[in-house]
Amino acid sequence: MAIHPTDGAGHTGRDVPPATVARLPGYLRALDALTEDGVVTTSSEELAERAGVNPAQLRKDLSFLGSYGRRGVGYEVAHLSEQVGVVLGLATLRRVVIVGIGNLGHALANYSGFADRGFAVVALVDAAPAVVGTTVAGLVVEPLDRLTAIVEGRGVSIGVIATPAAGAQDVCDALVEAGVVGILTFAPRALRVPDHVDVRAVDVASELQILAFHDARRTATGA
Fold first, then answer.
1. Which of 35, 70, 83, 176 is least buried, going by the fewest C-beta atoms within 10 A?
2. Are residues 192 and 107 in the same domain?
3. Residue 129's CATH number
4. CATH code for the domain in which residue 42 is found
5. CA quadruple 25, 79, 2, 50: dihedral positive or negative?
6. Would you say residue 191 lies in a domain?
7. Do 160 and 101 sit in the same domain of this protein?
8. Shared-domain flag, residues 170 and 152
9. Same domain for 58 and 102?
10. Binding site membership for NAD(+): which residues?
11. 26 lies in which domain range?
C-alpha cells in the first residue's frame, strides 16, 4: 500500500512506494544527526552516507516527496526533516498502548524516543493480577479487560504487543476489536489481522539467526 503525501496546501502528491517508506525513518535519523551537528544544508552524498544508502537511491526516494534539492546548494536540513515527518504522519500526535508489562514492556514504557518522534504512551495493560496496579514510567498498569475503554477513551490508534508468543494473537484480536489500526509486535509469531490494520513485527531472534547464517557462510568460505 502506497502512502499519499500532501503539500502545505493540502494537495495530494505522488504515491510513496512501501520500500521508500521503509527507508524514510533512516533519512529522518540522519537529518536529526545533521541538525545536532549544526548543519543547515546537506548534499545527497552526505545524507546518503549517513543513512547507509547510495545517493541515487536517496534522490529517487526524496523525489516522491517532491523534494529535489537545489543545484549547488543541496537540501535544507530543517525543511527536508519536516517533509519526511509529514509523510510519516509525525505531524500528528499518535497515542499508544503497550500490552504486556514484563521486562520488555518495562523497557518500552521507559523509552524516551517515543516522545521525541511524536508518540505518546498513554496506557499500559497486562493480564497478570500481580502486575496490574503497579506503576511503570509514571503510568498505572491496567487490566486487559479495560482495553476497549482505554482505546476509545484515550484516542489510542497504535498498540504495542510485548507479550509471550502464546498469547499474542488473542491480544492482537482484542486490540483490533477495540479499534486499534496499527500494531507493533515483539512476539515471535505471525499475527492475523484484517486488511485495514497494519502490523509491523520486531523479531530479535530471527534477526540474530540471519546474522548467524551470514557468519557461518563467511567462516565456511574463509572470508
1. 70
2. yes
3. 3.40.50.720
4. 1.10.10.10
5. negative
6. yes
7. yes
8. yes
9. no
10. 100-105
11. 18-87
Q: Which residues are annotated as a binding site?
A: 100-105
How does pLDDT run across 105-148, given as a tens digit for each residue? Answer: 999 999 988 887 789 999 999 999 999 999 999 999 999 999 99
Asked whether residue 109 falls in the same domain as residue 159, the answer is yes
On whether residue 223 sits in a domain, the answer given is no
φ/ψ of 122, rounded to 5, equals -105, -5
Residue 8: how many CB atoms within 10 A of its CB?
A: 8
Q: pLDDT value at position 151?
A: 96
As given in the structure block, the three cell numbers for residue 199 are 502490523
Domain contains 63 = yes
SS3 string, the chain, reads CCECCECCCCCECCCECHHHHHHHHHHHHHHHHHHHCCCCEECHHHHHHHHCCCHHHHHHHHHCCCCCCECCCEEEHHHHHHHHHHHCCCCCCEEEEEECCCHHHHHHHCCCHHHHCCEEEEEEEECCCCCCCCEECCEEEEEHHHHHHHHHHHCEEEEEECCCHHHHHHHHHHHHHHCCCEEEECCCCCCCCCCCCEEEECCHHHHHHHHHHHHHHHHHHCC
Q: How far apart are CA 25 and CA 19, in angstroms?
A: 12
Confirm whether 139 is domain-assigned: yes
Of 43, 71, 87, the residue that ends a domain is 87
Q: State the Cα–Cα distance between residues 149 and 100, nearest whole angstrom.
A: 17
Cell 497494519 locates to: 198
Using one digit for the tens of pLDDT, what is the confidence trace for 200-215?
A: 999 888 888 889 988 8
